[in-house]
Amino acid sequence: MVHVIEHQVDKIEPDDADSLITIIDEMLSFTPEAINHIKELSGNIPYFIQIICKNCGDYAVENRRRFIGYPELEKVIQILTGEANPVNTIISRLPVGIFQNNQYSTTDPKEIEVLISTLCYLNKKFDTKRE
User: Fold this and answer.
1) What is the CA radius of gyration of the chain?
2) Which whole-number Å values give the CA distances from 124 to 69, 119, 131, in the listed order?
3) Which DSSP string do the residues of the chain spell out, in sequence order?
4) How many other C-beta atoms are found inside a 10 Å radius of the C-beta of residue 80?
């Protein structure tokens, strides 16, 4: 790692996001709906994709699943965002400082757009449940 040059990666192309999500397809597969939802929630930012996929992997191991669909993905997302309380799982709400000193920057509009759009998306779903 001595010769590694640090390079922050921003939003990647949709095909590259697909490749990142399906890289371990022989061990864990996502349905097409789940893949599209991961890309929508992450804004195709690799760091966000990795957070989501890693926790989906934990969910799959705990529940002895080989495939993750939209419902399972939503369970994981609800725990990560604090919308649902984790019960008998190693998945937990994302820590407060997880986006500090990495790709989260208040001066980068693209990242702010992703976070705001994700929050709006989740709040929109929450608001329709109350009606």
Assistant:
1) 15
2) 21, 8, 11
3) -TTPPP-------HHHHHHHHTTTTTT-EE-HHHHHHHHHHHTT-HHHHHHHHHHHHHHHHHTT-SEE-HHHHHHHHHHHHTSS---S-S--PPPTTTTTTTT--TT-HHHHHHHHHHHHHHHHHHHHHH-
4) 20
Residues in the chain: 131
The pTM of this model reads 0.70
At residue 15, the pLDDT reads 95
Mean pLDDT, consecutive 10-residue stretches, the chain (131 aa), reads 64 92 94 96 90 95 95 94 87 77 54 70 60 44
Q: How many CA within 13 A on the CB side of residue 112?
A: 5
pLDDT at 131: 44
